[in-house]
Amino acid sequence: MKNIVIHSDFRKSYFQIKTQGEIECSVFLSLINLLDYKEFVQLDSLNIILDLRKTQLKITVNEYLSLIAPFAEMVGKFKYVKMAKLVDTPYETALALLFHEDTHNISNLDCNLYNTTSAATRWLFNS
């Protein structure tokens, strides 16, 4: 996927997804489909850092909200999912907060926003 770097550690069920440049809705749908892959679902739990810093989201609020159903379906295949989002602009922060508000009822999902990788990593593995 263009403008995306993914690091993973299967022993920790950990994925770091770093985006940069212009990102459209279809990229997020591709990421959801990637995490829904049967090899990953066998991990039982999932720890994700989604780094949206240095990213310009070319996505409308309605497009962003359209990702909730496929995201919820993917999350439902795991026992537990923790996701830390890294943001650094007002627009990405607003969309991340909106997404968080609309996914707070997913019982096996814990999601928080951060502006540094170290804070996100501490929360992901120490709480």
Q: What is the tally of beta strands? A: 7
Which strand order do you get reading across the main beta sheet?
1-2-4-6-7
Number of helices: 6
Provide the CATH superfamily.
Answer: STAS domain
Unreliable sequence segments: none
Beta-strand percent range: 25-35%
Characterize the largest beta sheet: strand count, sense, and whether it forms a barrel: 5 strands, mixed
Give the distance, in angstroms, between the N- and C-terminal Cα atoms: 31 Å
CATH topology: Transcription Regulator spoIIAA
Query: What is the succession of H and E elements?
Result: EEEHHEEHHEHEH
Overall body shape? globular
**What is the correct CATH architecture?**
2-Layer Sandwich
Number of domains: 1
How would you state the average pLDDT, rounded? 89
| CATH top-level class | Alpha Beta
Helix content: 40-55%
Please state the CA-atom Rg, rounded to the nearest Å: 13 Å
Structural descriptors:
five-stranded mixed β-sheet; Transcription Regulator spoIIAA; 127 residues; 31% strand
Notes on the protein architecture:
The protein has 127 residues and is of the alpha/beta class. The chain has one domain: Transcription Regulator spoIIAA, CATH 3.30.750. Helices cover 41% and strands 31% of the residues. The protein has six helices and seven strands. The strands form two sheets. A five-stranded mixed beta sheet has the order 1-2-4-6-7, with helices on both faces. Strands 3-5 form a two-stranded parallel sheet.
List the helices and strands and how they pair.
Elements: E1 4-9, E2 14-19, E3 21-24, H1 25-35, H2 38-41, E4 45-51, E5 55-58, H3 61-65, H4 68-75, E6 80-86, H5 90-103, E7 109-114, H6 117-126
Parallel strand pairs: 2-4, 3-5, 4-6, 6-7
Antiparallel strand pairs: 1-2
